[in-house]
């Protein structure tokens, strides 16, 4: 993904589809979904419209991030606290694109 001159995001976003489990702060599972993109500072998830999480709500996410070398492939589990930043309706209207911001930025090693 290339950055435009007017890009204001602090972190480069990568179009990655990874499985995600979203829980509340008490550890109760809210939903299972997937990422649309991922960065060191946040993620964009696809969420069924009926399961939309309120803006600003703190959540915890577990992302299964694929890693590979010439000879291996593995799924690395990344866990972090986040909060709901915004929702955008998707084309089919049965889902929303939900932006999360991580409580602390991460070093996901996505540049390589």
Domains counted in the coordinates: how many? 1
The separation of the N and C termini measures: 13 Å
- What would CATH call the class? Mainly Beta
What's the average pLDDT?
Answer: 89
Roughly how many Å is the radius of gyration? 14 Å
Could you tell me the number of beta strands? Answer: 6
Order of helices and strands: EEEEEE
Protein described:
The mean pLDDT is 89. The radius of gyration is 14 Å and the shape is globular. The protein is an all-beta fold. Helices cover 0% and strands 52% of the residues. The protein has strands spanning 19-23, 29-38, 42-48, 58-68, 73-89, 95-102. A six-stranded antiparallel β-barrel has the order 1-2-3-6-5-4. The protein has one domain: Thrombin, subunit H.
Short summary:
This protein has strands at 19-23, 29-38, 42-48, 58-68, 73-89, 95-102.
């Amino acid at each position: 993904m290339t950055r435009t001159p007017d890009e204001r995001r602090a972190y480069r976003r990568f179009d990655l589809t990874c499985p995600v489990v979203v829980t509340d702060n008490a550890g109760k599972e809210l939903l299972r979904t997937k990422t649309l993109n991922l960065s060191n500072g946040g993620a964009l998830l696809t969420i069924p419209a009926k399961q939309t999480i309120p803006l600003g709500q703190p959540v915890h996410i577990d992302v299964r991030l694929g890693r590979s070398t010439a000879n291996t492939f593995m799924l690395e589990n990344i866990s972090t606290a986040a909060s709901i930043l915004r929702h955008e309706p998707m084309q089919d209207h049965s889902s929303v694109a939900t932006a999360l911001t991580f409580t602390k930025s991460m070093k996901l090693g996505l540049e390589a």
